[in-house]
Amino acid sequence: MSECDTVTAKYKLVDYNVPTAGRLAALLFTYKGIAFEYIQVDKMKAHEHETASPFGTLPVLYVNDEILATDYAICMYIARVHGLEGADANDAARCATIVTGIAALFSTKLLTGKDIRDKLPKYLRSFDKLLRQVNTGYFVGEQITWADLAVAFSCHQIQARSAGALDRHPSLGDHYLNMYSIPAVKNFLEETCPSE
Questions:
Q1: How confident is the model over 107-141, as pLDDT tens digits?
Q2: Is the dihedral of CA 116, 137, 184, 21 positive or negative?
Q3: pLDDT tens digits, 141-182
Q4: For the domain bounded by 89-192, which CATH number is listed?
Q5: Mind spelling out the 3-state secondary structure of the chain?
Q6: Spatial distance between the Cα atoms of 11 and 95, rounded to a whole number of angstroms
Q7: What b/e readout covers 145-168, taking b as 16+ CB neighbours within 10 angstroms?
Q8: Paired residues of 16 in beta bridges
Q9: Superfamily grouping for domain 3-81
Q10: pTM for this model (two decimals)
Q11: Which of 25, 56, 79, 179 is placed for a possible disulfide with 85 were both Cys, Cβ 3.0 to 4.6 Å?
Q12: Neighbours of 95 (CB within 10 A)
C-alpha cells in the first residue's frame, strides 16, 4: 500500500461489540479525526465477518480493498500512518512496550475481586512509574501517542470494574484525567465504553 493510498484511504473497522483492542483502533481514528465506518457485531452473529478474516476472528480493518487483521497490528498500522507512534523507532518500540503491558494485564479476565486484588496493583504501579520516569505527562516523548490512548482506554475500563483503582497512583490518575479531558476521547469513551 503506497503512502498516498493511506492519505485518501477508506476505512472500515469490524469488531465484536465488547471492549477489545478493536475498540482501541476506533478510539485512535476518533482522536485523529479520521473518517471510518465502524461495524460492531454480536459474537454469536459474527460468523460471516469471522469467515472473511484471515485468522477467523475479529477485529479486522478494511483499508480500501485490503484487509488487515489482529487487534494490535491494526492499532500499530493506524498509529504509524496517522502519527501516533512517536518521533522514531525507539518511540515506536516504547509504545509497543506499553501496549504489550496492557495486553498482559487484560490477558485474563479481571472479573473477580481476587483477579483485581492480585494482578491490577502491580500493573498500575508499573504504569505510574513509567509515567514518572518520562516526566512529560505522556508515556512516550512529549506528545500523545497510541500508548497514551491505550492506557486511557484501559483505565476507563478499570475504573468501571474497580472504582478508585487509580487513587494510589497519582501520575497515572492525572494522565487518565488529562486524556479524558480531550473532548473526542471523552465522548468516545462515554458512548462506547460506559462506566456504569
A1: 665 555 566 567 788 889 999 999 999 999 999 99
A2: negative
A3: 999 999 999 999 999 988 887 888 899 999 999 999 999 999
A4: 1.20.1050.10
A5: CCHHHHHCCCEEEEEECCCCHHHHHHHHHHHHCCCCEEEEECHHHCHHHHHHCCCCCCCEEEECCEEEECHHHHHHHHHHHCCCCCCCHHHHHHHHHHHHHHHHHCCCCCCCHHHHHHHHHHHHHHHHHHHHHHCCCCCCCCCCCHHHHHHHHHHHHHHHHCCCCCCCCHHHHHHHHHHHCCHHHHHHHHHHCCCC
A6: 23
A7: bbbbbbbbbbbbbbbeebeebbee
A8: 41
A9: Glutaredoxin (3.40.30.10)
A10: 0.90
A11: 79
A12: 26
Q: Average pLDDT of 75-104?
A: 95
Residue 42 corresponds to which cell in the numbers above?
454480536
The grid coordinates of residue 92 equal: 515506536
Residue written as grid cell 498509529: 79
